[in-house]
Amino acid sequence: MLISRPIYILGAILFLGLQALNIFVWPNPLFGLILLLLGLGFFGLVIGAKIFKNWDRLEQVIWGAMLVLALVAIFLTACYYVWNLGAGAFWLSWLMPIMLGFSSAPTAVQIEEKDKNNFAKRILLFCLFAVFAIMAYFAFSVLWASATEQAIRSPWTVIAQSFFFLVFILGIVAFIFLSETKSKKSSLLILAILSFLFLSISLFVYKLGFGFDSFIHQATERYLAEHHTITPKPFYYIGQYSLVTFIHYFTNLGVNLIDKLLLPTLTVLCLPAAIFLGLKHGFGLKQKSGLLGALLFFVIPFGSLIMTTPQGLANLFALFIIFLSLSYIRGRGPTLWFLFVLALTALAIHPLSGIPVFVYLFILLFLKIKKRPIKIILTAATAILGAVSLPLVFILNSILSGTAIEITSIILKSPGILLANLNLPRIFSESHFSSLIDFVYVYGNNLAWLLPAVSVIVAVFLARKFTKFWWLGPLMFFILLVNYFFLQNTVEFSFLISYEQGAYAERVLSLAQFFLYPFFLLGLVWWLAKTWKGPWSWRVVLCLFFAGCLTASLYLSYPRHDALGISKGINVSKTDIAAVQWVERDAPNDEFIVLANQTVSAAALHEFGFKKYYDDMFYYPIPTGGQLYDYYLKMSYDAPSAATAKLAMDLVDVDYAYFIINDYWWNAEKIIEHAKLQTDSWHEIDEGKIYIFKYLR
After folding, report:
1. Which of 284, 423, 500, 565 sits CB 3.0–4.6 Å from 560 for a disulfide?
2. Which tens digit of pLDDT belongs to each residue from 356-412?
3. Is the backbone peptide bond immediately before 452 cis, with ω within 30 degrees of 0?
4. Does the CA dihedral 612-617-618-620 come out positive or negative?
5. Could you tell me where the beta strands, DSSP code E, fall in 547-619?
C-alpha cells in the first residue's frame, strides 16, 4: 500500500478540519478522543513507515505515534518557557509532526504476513486465549468490586485473595501461549491485557486517587489548563504537564482522568514492544524468546510505573531508550536522533531520568567516532562528568530556584565513612512460617543482589557475543551508583522532612538498575530456552515458578500491610474530602490556615487547587519540610495547644487556624481528648473518623 503525498495532504487537512469542528462547534469527549487517536495513528503510520523501515507495521505505528507525542511535548515545553500553553501553542504543536509526515510521504506501508501457526496449533492457541480472556474478565471484575473511598494502607486489604489465584493462572496461560504461538500480534495483545491488569490496580481500587504526589501534579495541570502558565516557572515536570493539557485541549476529557491514565496507557502500548525489539534485534533472539522476555519483565517489581508522576513517566521513556538502543547498536533499530528526541522528552518531564539517558546516548555517539584517541577522551570525560552530574544539577537548581539544600563535605575528608555507610544487599532467607508470604519476600529481597549479579555475568559472558558495546549497561549502572552515593552522603534536602531525605537517592538507585534489565532478561530467556528443551516435568516447573514470580512481583509493586511489610501511606478518602469542604464552609473568610497531614492536604488540592497562598506559603502544610508542617507535627506528636496554633497563625498573620486529626493517627485518641480542652470549638466528621479543632487568635 502506498500513501502518496496528495493522499497525505488530504488526510492532514481533513484531520485539522475535524479537530476544529470538535473544538469550536461540537466539543464531544468521545469524538475528540477517537479523533486524536486516529490522528496519532495516521501521522504515526506515515512517519513510522519511513523512519523504521525494518520494523513491522504495528511497530511502525506505535513508535511513529510515540515520536509525534514526543515532538509535541518538546514543542509545548519550549512554548511554556517562552510563551504560554494557550490555544495558539496547542494548534502549532501539530506543525512539526505534520511537516515531518509531509517529508516522509510518499510512504510504502508493508502488509504483514498471515498467521504462520498450523490449524491444530491455532485451535489450541484459541482455547488458551479464551481461557486467558475469561480469567482476565474475572480478575478485572474483582478489581472493579474492590473500589473504595475509605482510607486504606494497601490495596491488598480490600482485594479478594482470589485475585492472586487468577493472576497466577493468567501467568501460566500467558507463559504457555507465548511459548507456543508464532503470532506476534496475538502475543502483544496478551502482554497488553496482562500489563494493564498489573498497572491498573490503583485506578480501580482508589476511586479518589492514589498516593500524594499525583494530587499536586493534577492540581497544577488543572491550573495550567485554565490559566495557560504558572509562576514561578519550574525547571522540571513541564513535559508531563504539556502532554496532559494537550490531550485535554483536544478531547475535552477531564485533566484528572487523563493524568491517571497517561502512564499506564503508554506503558501498556509501548513498553512490551520496546522490550521485544531490544531483545530480538539487540541480542539476536528469536521472536518467541523476545516476547517471553517482555513477559518476564514483570517478574521485577515495577512500582515506579503504577501511578502517573513525572518521575514515573520519565522512567518509562528511559526504559524505551535503554531497550531500543540495543536495536540501534546492532544497526536494526531507530536512528540515534530518534533516541535523542525521546531523551529530550524525558529531560522535559524529569531531569533525574533525562540527564542519565543523555549521558548514555552521548557515550553511544562518541563511540561512533573513528579516531581512537578522540573517542577515548570524549567517552571518558562524559562518563566522569556523568558520575557527578546529578548532585551538580541539584546544587545548580537550588541556586537558581532558591530551594533549600545543604552540602556536607565530611565524606570527602573521610572516605572511610562512605564504606561504613554502604548498605550492601545480603542473601535474605528469613522464615515466618507462612509459605506464600515467605516466598514473596525471599524472592523480592534477594532480587537486590540477584539482579545485578546475573546481569553482570550475562553481560560479560553472553552479551559480548552479540555486541561489542556489551559493557555500556554495567558502565551506566556504575555511573549512577556513584551519583547515588554522592546524593546519599553529600546532599541534604532540607526542604523535605527527615524520613523523605533519601527519596531522590533511592530513585537514582532504581534508575541504575534499569540499565541492567536487558541483561537480566537475556539471562532468564537463555536459561528458559535451555531448560525448555528438557522433559515436560521441567516445563511444568518453569511455568509454575515464573507464574509465582509474576504474582510475587505484582504484590511487591504496591503498598503492603502484612506481617513483614507495613505501609505508612494512606490514601485520600471521602472523609478527608468532607473535612476540607467543612472547613471551607465554616471559615468566616479566606484568611485562615489548616494544620493537617499529607492526605488531608491532598484532599484540599483535589477540591480547591492552589486556592490560597501567603507569599510563598500554602495554607495547608505542603511541602512536608515547611514550617506549617512543623507546627502540625508539634500538635500531633507532642500535645495540641492553643499556644502552638497561635504561633502558626502568627507565621502568616491570620486570625483562624484549624487542626485536623484522623482516627488512624498512632495516638489519635489521646490527641483528640487533649485538643478538646484547648480548642475554641471542634467538629467530628463521619462518626469520628476525623476531628477538626478550630482556634481563634
Report:
1. 565
2. 999 999 999 998 888 889 999 999 999 999 999 998 888 887 777 666 666 666 555
3. no
4. negative
5. 592-595, 613-614, 617-618
